[in-house]
Every structure is written in C-alpha cells, then in structure tokens.
Amino acid sequence: MELRVADHPLVSHKLTHLRDQNTPSPVFRQLVEELVTLLAYEATRDVRVEPVDVITPVAPTTGVRLSAPRPVVVPILRAGLGMLEGMTRLIPNAEVGFLGMVRDEQTLQPFTYAERLPKDLAGRQCFVLDPMLATGGSLCGAVHFLTARGASDVTCICLLAAPEGIARVREEVDAAGIACTLVIAGVDERLNEKGYIVPGLGDAGDRLYGVVD
Ligand code: PRP
Ligand code: URA
Questions:
Q1: Is 206 among the residues known to form the active site?
Q2: Cβ distance 49 to 63 under 8 Å?
Q3: pLDDT per residue over 147-199, tens digit each?
Q4: How many whole angstroms separate alpha carbon 136 and alpha carbon 96?
Q5: What is the pLDDT of residue 210?
Q6: Model pLDDT, residue 212
C-alpha cells in the first residue's frame, strides 16, 4: 500500500477549522468539499490517460484525456457523501457508485446496508471517499468489495486517520495483493476506548448532516 499524507499549510489550516467543535454544519460541509478538492489533485496523480489530438487557434498538437473506462468514485455513505462534490468538481466525467456502510458503535464492526455499483468493475480505477479512517473496518470492507468485483486499483481519500486504521488497511491490502493508495489530510494520535479518532473531529456524519438516533 502506498500512503500519501498531505503536507500543505492550506490543508492544515482547513483541517483545524474542521476540528473545531464550534464550526457549524454549513461551514463544516464547505470545508470538507474544499479539502477533498485539494486532496483529489494528489490522489489522481496516477489516473489513466490516453493521447488525444487537439487543434489550438495556432497549431495542431497532442494532449491527453482520461482513458476509457472512466474512473469510478465511490463515497461511503453517509459521511463520504460530503466529499463527493469536491471530488467530482475535479473529475466531472467520472462515474459515481455508492456504498452504504455503518459501524456498530458497540462492536465497531461495519455493516453494509446499501450498494449501487456496476456488477463488473474489471480494470476500473476506483476512488473511495470516506472522511474518517478509525479502526479501518469500513475502509477494508469497501476495498474488498470493489476488488471482488474486479477493480484494478483502489485509491482511498480520507481526511483523518488513526495509526491503528492505517496499519490495518496496509496489512489487509498487502496480504491480499491489492494495489491500493491511501491519501490522507492528517494522521492523528490514536483511537479512544469508543473507537473514535483522538483528537479527531467527532462523528463526521453527525457533523455533516446532524444526529440520526
Ligand atoms: C464513520 C466513518 C467511516 C467509519 C470509520 O461512519 O465515516 O465510515 O465510521 O470507522 P472504522 O474505520 O472504525 O470502520 P459511520 O459508521 O459513523 O456512519 P455514518 O457515515 O453514517 O455516520
Ligand atoms: N467515525 C467518525 O465519524 N469519527 C471517528 O472519530 C471515528 C469513526
């Protein structure tokens, strides 16, 4: 697994604002979008392109365009949905598939409650969006789901990660021989006894969309 941690003052500035418990939902959503757009630039470094001819007002030349089949962007509901707009702003012609996952707050095990993705992802590059990588259960589940359908490589974009979660994803994808890249805005200290990232930002889904229970 390749790990890329953003090292940029603008990312750190926005992340700090995001962590603040006093940041209200509308600002939180805006910051998430902006952060994803910044991370997406790095995350799409290896997106496949092919040569294409173009005629400028001055001369013909050769450029590139995204190759077919198009990349697939997969937000993990609910919180990953907050990252979708920021990602598709950068690659508007990507396809979008959805995975609904929720972790049981007692056992910390993820449960997949919805999916809307092509049955055949053979040869597709997938970009998974989830703001929080805590124990890693949800992200590992998503990566296995996509590669079981044939995805050739998976890039995961997260805002905050715990070292425990990074280690778990690395262990599982390396053991399974999955080509996986993890792009993160910040790595935090640890998980607490409830499986929350410390210092983190709290419950990302609740901060984006409000408390459900
Ligand atoms: C959060 C987050 C991840 C997961 C991370 O979602 O968005 O999907 O927890 O935890 P893990 O690494 O320990 O699996 P949650 O299950 O709270 O669902 P939500 O997005 O609907 O709030
Ligand atoms: N999910 C969240 O939303 N936040 C955490 O800190 C851990 C899991």
A1: yes
A2: no
A3: 999 998 999 999 999 999 999 999 999 999 999 999 999 999 999 999 999 99
A4: 22
A5: 87
A6: 66
Ligand 2 atom, smallest distance to 198 CA? 6
Are the CB atoms for 132 and 79 separated by under 8 Å?
A: yes
- Vertex 183 angle, CA 72 and 74, to 5°: 25
Opening angle at CA 89, ends 88 and 90, nearest 5: 85
Residue whose entry in the numeric block shows the structure tokens 């940029």: 8
Q: Which amino acid is at 123?
A: G
pTM for the complete prediction? Answer: 0.97
Quick: pLDDT tens for 104-143.
Answer: 999 999 999 999 999 999 999 999 999 999 999 999 999 9
Measured in whole angstroms, how far is the alpha carbon of residue 75 from the centre of its chain? 7
What atom of ligand 1 comes closest to residue 108's alpha carbon? 13
Q: Is 61 a catalytic residue?
A: no
Q: First vs last Cα of the chain: how many Å apart? A: 36
Q: What is the DSSP letter of 61?
A: E
Q: Which two tokens stand for residue 159?
A: 């805002």
pLDDT on residue 192: 98
Q: Is 203 a catalytic residue?
A: yes
> Which residue has tokens 């209200």?
24
Which phi and psi angles does 94 have, rounded to 5°? -70, 155
Instruction: Please state, in angstroms and rounded to a whole number, the distance separating the CA atoms of residues 155 and 52.
Output: 25
Q: What is the mean pLDDT of the chain?
A: 96
CA–CA dist 105, 111 (Å, integer): 11
Q: Residue 58: how many CA atoms within 13 Å on its side-chain side?
A: 1
Write down the residue that tokens 């007002």 correspond to: 57
